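Subject: histidine kinase

B.,
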Amino acid sequence: MPYWLVGTVVVGLFGGGGGLTGGDLRTQFGAYAVGLPLAAVTALFPLTRPMSVAAARTLCGVPAERFADGPARGWEARARTAGWFTLHLGAGALVSGASLALPPFAAAVAALPFSPSLRASELGAYWGLDGFPWVWAAVPAAVLMLLALAGAAAATGALLARRAPRLLGPGPADLLAAAERRAAEAESRNRLARELHDSVGHALSAVTLQAGAARRVLNAEGPDLEFVREALTAIEETTRRTVGELDRALGLLRRGEEVAEGVGPGLDALEALVRGAGPRVALAVAGTPESVPEAVSREAYRIVQEGLTNAARHAGGAPVTVRLDVRTEEVEIVVENPLPERPPVARPHGGRGLPGIAERARLLGGTTGAGPADGVWRLAARIPR
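Prediction pasted inline below.
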């Protein structure tokens, strides 16, 4: 209606029409012809597409996944949206106008056989139905008018339903944005999986090691109760810290949020991590860990954590040495433990520990290496600061 009103003013100014509500059919269709381009121009605004998609999903019976989400990206998507908007308004204006005008006209035509005054009016003269039996032809003619109106409305709806997915569906830019969104979601889930693997896996290994050591000490003659007390304290600290990390990760998963890069413990929590790993783990730090950037500090902590987990699983309680050097432009991490007398039992499909460490370092531009060297198993990582 707003576009038609503007078109009526324009036609009235330049064509001498009869105003907003008057004028012949030529004036009305002239206003219609002026209003359609105006509708197409306004439909080029990006936010037109969400409004049009909402209407099409409600009215056209088309599955929601066939439509694009969000504002139109790029001129190609805007042009398709403008095509839909113009088609929708143009066809809707014709059907609406016919729905307003035709039913009263059909009722008047159907009343011709029963009203001499109507037959004597201009309507009766126009139809020429002033004799029997032709006057009764007005009734089926009126019914046919209403059926034609219903058919036109149904055909228009079917046309719009067929064109809606093509004109309002996703274009190349929308498909690319959806692919990037899926990739980001997959990366977030992979990051969450790494966090859970490292934190929970290390906690279970550390708790198992401490509990086993405490049991052996209690079963020995003259048990060292102080050692048992330290082991139980380490178990308590480890489980409390891990439960907090697990709650944080699961809370993000429940809310559907991404795992933030900078969230989680860093090198400032390294001493507590080593203390919880048992009395046979030694830590040597060179430099100031507080000077390491947050992202690097967080990943370095996880690398040390995974190194301790591997040592607890495969070193058989042997002493473990952790060396951290942050004095240069790189953060250097070395985790060493003596090679066990028997090689550890390998998993059928390999573990996720060492690949996870390599992936963490690679994301920050670093390198890792792991393997036997000089009678010890050595895990080494270098990460640029």
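The longest strand covers residues 330-338.

T.
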